[in-house]
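Board work, copied verbatim: RWD domain containing 4
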Amino acid sequence: MELEALRSIYEGDESFRELSPVSFQYRIGENGDPKAFLIEISWTETYPQTPPILSMNAFFNNTISSAVKQSILAKLQEAVEANLGTAMTYTLFEYAKDNKEQFMENHNPINSATSISNIISIETPNTAPSSKKKDKKEQLSKAQKRKLADKTDHKGELPRGWNWVDVVKLSKTGSKDDE
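↓ predict structure ↓
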């Protein structure tokens, strides 16, 4: 029943995503909003008598500090306990939307590019240089392979003089200046 209700309520809402019949994601805030975050709710087998699994481990949340994530999850957990025994997925999503500013008041965006580059630079001395990477061969189409085969002999070598300049043609064009 709750699954059908969620599907009808959030039909056409870009923020809602059904990962499976028992797992849902909802983006709180707009796409470009630095205070936007994503909540994932997964139902257990005995849901709603037991609490659902709440998660903020989505890649979308990589700029949010773990302390802020824990704070949001703790506040959501309080709402779960208050609604235990009833269908609460919609209630939790709406609670998060209504309290977004309060949840994110201590949020300072983490520059993930900096932290990733620091991790990479720390790990680089321990790893061998990237010379181990194999150079990819250029992929040729069938037509390109045929042309190449037509130009070469059976050993794959180009015939003698394939890049020679036609001296007769050059001498004819240059003779106009001589006259």
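Strands lie at 16-20, 23-28, 37-42, 53-55.
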